[in-house]
Sequence to fold (163 residues):
Amino acid sequence: MNSIAVCFVCLGNICRSPSVEAVMRDLVERAKLADRILIDSAGTGDWHIGELPDERAQKAARKRGYDLSKLRGRQVAAADFARFDLFDLFIVMDDANAAALAAISPPEHRDKIRLLMEFATRDDSRVVVDPYFGGEDGFEKVLDQCEDACEGLLKALRAQMTA
Ligand code: 4NP
Fold:
């Protein structure tokens, strides 16, 4: 079986992508695939570099057993272009993230950029809406969407690794 590396990308890397990183890590660890599936996250913006995830995201995640406290905001950077070879997939939350990433991606790697909600099976939303300027219910919705989509993503990765 091959290994695979996934980078989750949102705007700030303090709400959605740390949440999905934690959900996916938990699934992958429970599936005993942590040495096969490498997981990272980043933001397209630079406002929150080095910061802890948003307190509301941490609180909502903690209630479901996910720990975001080890994560720190980081921006997708020039170094990631070198790492485009390392990353097999860049999983983005919305169309703006996809466009920002495509703009800095070498053309031959653009097909690695995919929307997270493509992998969901219960929720047919196209995107994970930014919860930053809304209320706490937005963070619960993000986690619901992440849990749904990560199950589908894990299935897709298993298939890709054994192909
Ligand atoms: P995220 O949410 O992209 O899910 O991390 C945001 C966090 C911060 C900002 C926007 C979105 N901001 O404008 O600072």
Remarks:
- Residues 10-16, 43, 47, 130, 132 surround 4-nitrophenyl phosphate (CB under 6 Å).
- The helical segments are 16-30, 55-63, 78-82, 95-104, 136-162.
